[in-house]
Design a protein that fits this description.
CATH superfamily of the largest domain: Ribonuclease E inhibitor RraA/RraA-like
Largest sheet: 9 strands, mixed
Number of domains: 2
Radius of gyration: 26 Å
Shape: globular
CATH class of the largest domain: Alpha Beta
Oligomer: single chain
CATH topology of the largest domain: Glucose Oxidase, domain 1
CATH architecture of the largest domain: 3-Layer(bba) Sandwich
Distance between the termini: 73 Å
Number of strands: 13
């Protein structure tokens, strides 16, 4: 009797599990892809399903916020970013050594040419009324505070532009350029007229640009990290942070707190009342005192 009941229960559980967790067959049937509507492929921004999902959570960063970020050390930004601390790229040369680059990412991705790709890129450029040279597009479409971020094959890649292309982008009010690849005209890009327009790049090379722009303002890979269009960019000779615009207020608030704390610690050191180890970092008692002063 007990065996019969056990068998019945096992069958019942199996039937319920099959109803609740039905498995798809090996040979699944998928809905066919939907064709892009007429005119869709000539949108100024290349379509990205990822960005379509993320867009509602990505607020616009103001000019005032970008100006404030220019004064925040990279070390402070690192401490404020939490899970985005590793979204940091290194290994770039700066055409304006010592200068800081801050802005919003305007991304572009390039591939080496081949006949059919070249034909398609030229056709799209004609349909969309843009220059197939994406640096030239940026020289017509970039806005104030933009940072052109180009995925160009890294140290084994190719050049983006020279000083004429840089001038065109600069005249649009862009803050600078980051190239995971190379640039021409290194001497020209170091001229004083580019003093506020740093170009962070991997190498210089006299060859003219030949790689083709294939995606404009979509996710790219820069020196091993992901960069999304509209990301906040903060970089200097040491490296570059890319993080979501939703984190700007968090970074700025943390920077204010750090500035206040360091002022408090410096005063304690000058007073010579406490041991260094109790001041840096703050002991619990001194931390409590600091927080009370800030409230």
């Amino acid at each position: 009797m007990m065996r019969a009941v056990s068998l019945f229960l096992c069958c019942l559980i199996f039937a319920i599990a099959k109803l609740g967790f039905s498995q798809e067959p090996f040979n699944q049937v998928f809905e066919p892809d939907k064709k892009a509507p007429e005119g869709f492929r000539t949108n100024r921004t290349s379509y990205s399903a990822i960005m379509d999902v993320l867009e509602p959570s990505r607020p616009e960063v103001s000019v005032e916020q970008l100006e404030q970020l220019k004064e925040v050390p990279l070390e402070v930004i690192f401490s404020a970013l939490g899970e985005y601390q590793l979204n940091y790229a290194r290994g770039f040369q700066n055409t304006q050594p010592g200068s800081r680059l801050v802005g919003r990412a305007l991304t572009m991705r390039f591939l080496p040419p081949r006949p059919d790709l070249t034909e398609a890129a030229l056709a799209l450029a004609e349909e969309g009324n843009w220059d197939r040279r994406y640096y030239a597009r940026a020289a017509e479409e970039a806005g104030p505070g933009d940072v052109v971020v180009a995925e160009l094959g890294g140290s084994d890649g190719h050049n983006l532009f020279g000083d004429m292309g840089a001038t065109g982008i600069q005249q649009r009010g862009a803050a600078g350029v980051i190239i995971d690849g190379g640039t021409r005209d290194y001497a020209g890009l170091r001229d004083e007229r580019f003093a506020d327009f740093p170009v962070l790049h991997k190498f210089t090379d006299p060859h003219t640009t030949s790689w083709l722009g294939v995606e404009y303002n979509t996710p790219v890979r820069i020196s091993g990290v992901t960069v999304l269009p509209g990301d906040v960019v903060v970089g200097d000779d040491g490296g570059i942070f890319f993080f979501p615009p939703s984190h700007v207020e968090q970074v700025l608030e943390y920077a204010d707190m750090v500035a206040d704390r360091e002022e408090f610690q410096l005063q304690l050191l000058e007073d010579k009342e406490y041991r260094f180890r109790d001041i840096y970092p703050l002991s619990k008692e001194l931390q409590d005192e600091f927080e009370q002063l800030r409230d």
